[in-house]
Amino acid sequence: MAAIDQSKIRNFCIVAHIDHGKSTLADRIIEKTGLLTSREMQAQVLDNMELERERGITIKAQTVRIVYNAKDGNEYIFNLIDTPGHVDFNYEVSRSLAACDGAILVVDAAQGIEAQTLANVYLALDHDLDVFPVINKIDLPSAEPERVKNEIEDVIGIEAQDAPLISAKNGIGIEEVLEAIVEKIPAPKGSPDNPLQALIFDSVYDSYKGVIVFCRIMEGRIAKGTAIKMMATGATAEVVEVGYFGAGQFIPCEELSAGMVGYLTASIKNVKDTAVGDTVTDVNNPCAEPLPGYKKVNSMVYCGMYPADGAKYPDLRDALEKLQLNDASLNYEPETSIALGFGFRCGFLGLLHLEIIQERLEREYNLDLVTTAPGVIYRVHKTDGEVIELTNPSNLPDPSQIDYMEEPVVSAEIMVTTEFIGSIMQLCQERRGRYISTEYIEASRALLKYELPLNEIIYDFFDALKSRSRGYASFDYELKGYEESKLVKLDILINHDEVDALSFIVHADSAYERGRKMCEKLKDEIPRHLFEIPIQAAVGGKIIARETVKAMRKDVLAKCYGGDITRKKKLLEKQKEGKKRMRQVGNVEIPQSAFMSVLKLDDK
Amino acid sequence: MRDLSIYIHIPFCVRKCLYCDFLSFPVSASGSGMQAREMESYVNLLEQEIKENAEKYKEYRVVSVFWGGGTPSILPAEDVSRIMEAVKGNYQIAGDAEITIEMNPGTVDASKLRQYISAGMNRISIGLQSADDRELARIGRIHDYRDFLDTYELAVKAGFCNINIDIMASLPGQSVLSYEQTLRTVTALKPEHISAYSLILEEGTPLYEHQSEYHFPSEEEDREMYALTKEYLASCGYHRYEISNYAKTGCECRHNKVYWQRGDYLGFGLGASSMVQNVRWKNPDEMEEYAVYVDCLAGKQEGFWVDRQILTVQEQMEEYMFLGLRMMCGISRTEFTRLFGCRIEEVYGEVIERLCCQGLLLQENDCIRLTDRGIDVSNYAMSQFLFDRN
Is the dihedral of CA A364, A375, A528, B368 positive or negative? Predict the structure, then answer.
């Protein structure tokens, strides 16, 4: 293959608010460039995780290389890096942006700018990317492209008058987008003759090839046999294969050079050696210093994950290890619970991230999991001056040793139509929000700014927001910092035994309410036993709420269906089977679902 | 010569009751032409099935026959007689065999009852469920109390002297008081046998689907009715011999006991269940399949069975326990050892000890039985005797 002309390479991504049509546009671009025939196209080529298709969202950044014959008669190489759209995955967006030189901003012609549109555009501008807008879904009856163009110019401040008007779904205006990519996205800089400097922006684990490292070559070149070094971890290896990304497959090539996006596999022994954000260089001709990389976002939400079957603990550990390879934002460390046995305390970017990891563990690794209530990281300042980052409520020191506690607070931006401002403000108030400002984007839409404690938004804030705005509000947030707060640990006692896996940290003012709801919920979850079971919520040893699971008094199957004993036996078997999925705490059997029930303590 | 019981299933009724999930289809009482033909062809199949099996069971002695449904009494009396002839003519019937037919009030008249007697029936089971007409209407019964009383009196007059009455507790709109009234009314008639069930909401039944529209007795009330049944029936001289069955001395239903004591039984008809020498099977429950099945029998081929299962020793043990414990007399240690060649403790020692500690099980000499508390939570207690599957 002839050397690729660097000026004919375009590395870009598409950013958008969720559902504005990012993945659909990506599909159309791939289709139009002729790399795939329509028949070969799966519904959405880039969302290739089963889970992503189902949920209609992009979780992992996906990358594809395509060839475009432009109207100027030249052949261009496009490296399209798809990015996740959900607020939980800003970190992933960041990673992808670092590998790009420009971005397409997709805005829905009917909905206009949403909270995540802003968040993602600002992220892209932070990375010095050239951003050009396209207006999607222009075929909708409610489309108002002119209004949206003005909105983009007013709110974001980027030129939008000549933005392509498209319908990704119906393939309208795609040519225009392709030409705009050639025109408006700059060619990569860097020289193949400089020492190798490549940014690792992702990695996946493949059972045949081992660790596959996704990288953007900034300077120099890399080929099979190159001795490489990861500058942060110091690990060295020899490159086995380099290549680029076909649609859903890895296509080997001879060399990757400055400006290109591709992958490499190497004799990498330890998966931890390939940290995302690290710089790869040539052992024999190293670059002077590593690339700045990008800010690593820390886990914001923690929960305990336990195998339902204790014997599967090693399987869970292996699965987490493999998932972490593809998802550097996942953290975990072993922990033990009296109620649940051996498991892991896992850190996530947000609740959606948690749910997705949980589902992937269950589906892809066939694990049956018990998950404890998610919480945030609290800072405990002890009287002796020590500061603890608390991820597991069970580790809270004795109250006498605590000077004060702090909780994480986020700056939140909520985009909402004016008719719902009242109810959204009320919601934020209920969630201990601090009002900052209201900015009117246009007469009928406003951007509400609030500061909210993170632990008030990780459970069901998004759902509440949607239900109180009939689905119209959009939401984005970023961590602002830590603030002192009146926090207490809420303990749950079942039949007078404290169940460690059910404890959680809560603001003192909501302790009573949460305790009451928790007891009510558990009362429904725990089946009747032969004896009465008190369920109590306590703060600092003081009982603040109680419910009782009455003793099972009658459990008789009267009928016998004309000698159909099999049917009767099936019923008894079901009863016995049900018992197996329980956790024994003291002499009480608690269904595994009870440990997750705290997730659903919504206000309805 | 081994004992054998025979069950005959008649899957027709006047109208499905709202709580019923038995295998039964409504046909109008008068029987339109098509429905009459349908019943006719079913009876033919049944007769053929009974005859075709005779050879295989010639070494058996039939000790009980039970006609269940549906509502068997909906059939023309001639059909019942014809089937009974087929049974009597092809199997050895014990002289003291118990022969029962189930019926619903309003589906028989004096002549029908007389024909039952001549066909050899010596026991009837009448579905009353409640003596309160409003409760009857609410669960979709086809009769009122008056209809029941007429049927009952006709049956006595016809010469039946072994009669069961079915009643139900926990019906929608039922109160403890009205239930007690049902108990009083029923016992005043002095039937030989009373079956007292609690209503179970079965998925797929209209009552289940529309349960929110009904007012069911509270748990406390249900509990009271349950306690009342035991006490009141005992005070009237009915002893409880099985979880839901009460009888005057010597009038226990022999056929029912065969199920609990794992005797051999053959089920004839649509979807009927059988167990002979530790093999269980079911007949097809679709009419077309059942017809094919009977056809196979006639061609001397093995018919096809549904869920045919040769019980392993473990399964036999499980059944022995959970069925035997339904009986108030419980199970016998020596019998267990005789059947399975080992002491019961070697298999169930740990379970028995645990349930005894929980006050659910009682050991008296050779007998192991549920306590009153154990009967209350019998599903739990019985499930403990199932082995872990893997």
Answer: positive
3-state helix, strand, coil in chain B (%, to 5): 45, 25, 35
Chain B residues inside the 8 Å CB shell of A309: none
- Give phi and psi for A560, each to the nearest 5: -135, 115
Nearest chain B alpha carbon to A531: B358
Neighbouring-strand partners of residue B92: B61
**For chain B, which residues lie within 8 Å of any Cβ of chain A, measuring from their own Cβ?**
7, 9, 22, 66, 68, 197-198, 200, 219, 222-223, 226, 243-244, 256, 259, 265, 267, 272-275, 280, 282, 307, 309, 318-319, 322-323, 358, 360, 375-380, 382-384, 386, 389
Helices B176-188 and B219-235: angle between axes, nearest 10 degrees? 20
Closest chain A residue to the Cα of B383, Cα to Cα = A572
Alpha-carbon distance of B280 to B75, in angstroms, equals: 28
Q: For residue A262, give the H/E element and its range.
A: strand A261-266
Q: How far, in Å, CA of A108 to CA of A24, rounded?
A: 12
The CATH label, of 3.30.2010, 1.10.10, 1.10.1420, 3.40.1440, for the domain at B313-383 is 1.10.10
**B177 token code pair:** 């008081």
A:B CB pairs within 8 Å: 94
Q: Do A564 and B273 touch (CB under 8 A)?
A: yes
What is the Cα–Cα distance from B389 to B318, expressed in whole angstroms?
Answer: 12
B378 contacts A557? CB cut-off 8 A? yes
Structure confidence by residue, pLDDT tens digits, A429-445: 989 999 999 998 777 78
What number is the ipTM of this complex? 0.83
Chain B residue closest to A564 (CA)? Answer: B273
Q: Which residues contact B46 (CB under 8 A, 6 or more apart)?
A: B8, B83, B268, B269
User: Are the beta carbons of A558 and B265 separated by less than 8 Å?
Assistant: no
Give contacts of B272 with chain A, Cβ < 8 Å.
562-563
In this prediction the pTM is 0.65
Asked if B380 lies within 8 A of A557 by C-beta distance, the reply is no
A541 in contact with B, Cβ within 8 Å: no
Domain definitions of chain B by residue range:
2-260, 313-383
Rounded Cα–Cα distance for residues A414 and A393 (Å) = 30
In Å, how far is B277's CA from the nearest CA of chain A? 14
Which of A455, A450, A453, A459 is CA-nearest to residue A424? Answer: A450
Residue A560 at interface with chain B, using a CB cutoff of 8 Å = yes
Instruction: Give the residue from A185, A14, A28 showing the smallest Cα distance to A106.
Output: A14
The answer on pLDDT for A603 being more than 50 is: no
**C-beta of residue A545 within 8 angstroms of C-beta of residue A491:** no
What is the spatial distance between Cα B278 and Cα B313, in angstroms, rounded to a whole number?
9
Q: DSSP for B220-267, please give it.
A: HHHHHHHHHHHHHHHHTTPEEEETTEEESTT---HHHHHHHTT--EEE
The Cα of B27 is separated from the nearest Cα of chain A by a number of Å equal to: 21
Which of A:99-128 have CB within 8 Å of B? none
Residue B3: count of CB within 10 angstroms of its CB: 16
Closest CA to A556 of B226, B90, B230: B226
Q: How far is A529 from chain B (nearest CA, A)?
A: 10
Angle of helix B145-158 versus helix B110-119 axis, rounded to 10: 50
CATH, range B2-260: 3.20.20.70
d(CA A63, CA A80): 6
Give average pLDDT by consecutive 10-residue segment, chain B, 390 residues.
Answer: 95 90 78 77 95 93 95 94 96 96 95 96 96 95 95 96 96 96 97 93 89 90 92 96 94 95 95 94 91 86 76 95 94 95 95 95 94 90 84
Virtual torsion, Cα A467, A469, A474, A476, nearest 10 deg: -70
